[in-house]
Amino acid sequence: MSVPRRTAVDYVEDVSPGSGTLPPRAWYASSDAKALSLNGEWLFRLSPAAGAEDDSFAREGFDAGGWGRIAVPGHWVLQGHGSPVYTNHRYPFPVDPPRVPTENPTGDHLRVFDLPPDWPDLGDGGAVLRFEGVESCARVWLNGTELGTFKGSRLPHEFAVGRLLRTAGNVLAVRVHQWSSGSYLEDQDQWWLPGVFRDVTLSHRPVDGVRDFFVHAGYDHRAGTGTLRVDSAVPGRVTVPALGVDVPTGEPVTVPAKPWSAEVPRLYDGVLATRGERVPLRIGFRTVEISDGLLKVNGRPVLLKGVNRHEWHPQRGRALDPATMREDVLLMKRHNINAVRTSHYPPHPLFLDLCDEYGLWVIDECDLETHGFAEAGWRDNPVDDDRWTPALLDRAARMVERDKNHPSVVLWSLGNEAGTGRGLTAMAEWIHGRDPSRPVHYEGDPDCRDTDVYTRMYAPHAEVERIGRGLDGGPRKRRRLPFLLCEYAHAMGNGPGGLADYQRLFESYERLQGGFVWEWIDHGIAHPELGYAYGGDFGEELHDGNFVCDGLLFPDRRPSPGLAEYGKVIEPVGIAGDGGNGTVRVTDKYDTADLSALAFSWSYQVDGETVASGPLPVPPLAPGESADVRLPAPPPDAPPGEAHWLVRAALAADAPWAARGHVVAWGQFPASRRTAPRVPATARPRTGDGVLALGPGTFDARTGALVAIGEVAVGGLRLDVWRAPTDNDEGAAWQSDPRCGPRWRAIGLHRMRHRLDGVECGEDALTVRTRVAPAGRELGLSAVYRWTSDGNRLRLAVRVVPEGDWTVPLPRLGIRFGLRTADRVRWFGGGPGEAYPDTRTAAAVGRWQAAVDDLQTPYVRPQENGARIDVRWAELGGLRVEGDPLFLLTARRWTTERLDAAAHRTDLVPGDTVWVNLDHAHHGIGSRSCGPGPLPRYHLRPEPAEFSFVFSPLPS
Ligand code: GAL
User: Fold this and answer.
1) Keywords for this entry (predicted)?
2) What is the secondary structure of 437-457 as a DSSP string?
3) CATH 2.70.98.10, the chain: domain bounds
4) Mean pLDDT, range 221-225, rounded to an integer
């Protein structure tokens, strides 16, 4: 006997977007109509399958006594019910659209509420129940009556509920399924986190209240006027007091106005008043267009210095509170970021309000990704199957209608990594028709059939340059479009490298209008034993490990060195030294703003200490203009030493996003040469008692191994070429170009053996010859250590010559040794943060100090980190080291081997030795965890090299 499969849960697998919801409309934060937040504690029951429990819980009088509690907004898997799952693009269930697994965790949510005493009479108008976001599918009842169902996790859904409300004891029941047909459209690279994760609100809808409205506010840059027209489903009046505007809805009015831009986000407060309701408006006048092959706002091309932002909080997942959203915006503004792609779904609507207010260009992206279909050559891809088109159009409409009144939104994006197909074309056509004022973006269509900009992800520098020069060929339409990198510079772990090289290209070719670093924040989940958990830490069957931790912020929103680097690279003011003729070249790199908001200053530094400083008058440059500004004469009484000019541009007055004095740009350049340390080899080696003494150095006479410098015991000093591979060294498995980490390991660079070939004690030097090579290989490095001294200081010159057939770059080249104690490090060189050859723009030469523990960069998955670059000298553990040439310094309480073996920060247990690396060079960082590796000029080629260090004991 065959059993018909159709049941009460069919809606879960139905391709339709849902039933019973109201048409989408514009969002607004508040109005004079009453609203009741239904956020808070709800009753909760989790069952293992969509049909495991009947719907009696929605009925009145149901006894939920045995149920648990859950915070709404929230994800149940982050509140002790089940666990999260992370996959990049593979669906974590069998792919058989639109069917989903029988094991379909289902969360029943219940909330009983009374209307507040001041709620209008129930006969007066209606009421709307609104869900801002529920993953992935919901069925809703109020007071025992089913309202309907919906999908589209990061999109709003509303039901008319007026007729069902009562003053007290309303029972709201929401059944949420983790998997639904909608899951096939939501295959973004992130945690799968079911739940009612955005606000739930009940709003009174007065008779003749505002329904949908569309604020059209264009700016004519030639005339300096704004034209405003507010179309409203319910007619009314629009007033903007500051502009003297008082017009009926639907009627355009042109007034002199200031434009809105991300740099100067001028908003005008207004009101849309219908007979029944007054809704506050925040109007920003701006016109977006593609003309002359360029993306222009208010007549000028813009250079997007962007980030991809997923919503993330380490405890609450995608249930973000307003304070966290504001923190994101402030951090972006303080790091010179001017654009956000809301990867890969419309964000909480408040975030866009913040973008309007503080000034950020936004690409608003639809909640659509079907990337998992790539595994089977895009067969059955929903975006190329007409049955799914209504669901796609529903998603497009819910995004556009909700967000259309934000001046910050300058482009609509159809979604991410969904292949190509008729459904996307239908979405683009609908969007173009509904809102011709904004261009459409979508990366996945190489022909740009449906899009108004050409965008790519992770294109290497050389290709970006070709595109900039217009040499990229391709379909005719595409060749005429402006170019964006909607994703580049994969910020996973240490890195990304090569940002400055991309920015140089963006600033050199008009067609290149910037990009969006992938991504804003690591999606690590706070975990009691692991610190931050990533894919696999919850026993997922399929997962993609720490690929989910690839942001410029650590999960706790502490900026990573990558963010410091990015903020420096995209500074809105160029400040460049002239090579010694006493001037500095200042360039206004804003798109629209002059430099009047900034105050410039100079300082003159000797050996990293500021010895004189003062204000620097800079002419009021317009965007794109440069001026050579004369610096003062160097202070006559400056002490001798290595001198630098440091010129800063800081906020002249408090801005909404940072206080007066906040530095937005700086440039540093040498004012004199550095003199390398000189140590004449005047001391003679002395032997006795199995030890050899040379100046302050004590060596093992047999092996030539350094034992102590003065009173400071020094252990295990030897050549080191290994670094704990970074995520970018490891590279992504799908990369076709060679990945360093696996190749290094295959050769055995992590297990080099050191063979002693000879110890020669000469007249004025101790020479130790070694060969450093991995087992099983012919290749190796000859390393000769030559020690000399002037009696007080000990100089080590290391000469390295590669032998055999090296086909890989070296990870690092330098020496390492152990010190028994070292709590603090002082150094003169690049700082204050981590820097590697292609991530070094933010390192300023100065005197810095830090605790050894604070030199570590807390990458969620431990890896090489924390190097300080261009170090002239450093002091730690009772020793002073000077370098010739400059060196990179790391110091940590565990070995590189331990660092390499750790999977989480909590695996790193401090030992009783501080391991110090003094590196002549490091291989670059690059971005190969998803994009290209380091540019060839940052490769550490195995070539003959010589470098030296001068050690001296510090007075105790
Ligand atoms: C892109 C994708 C992002 C993310 C990134 C790698 O292909 O659009 O969602 O997966 O790669 O982290």
Assistant:
1) Glycosidase, Hydrolase
2) TS-EE-SS-TT-SS-SSEEEE
3) 689-953
4) 97
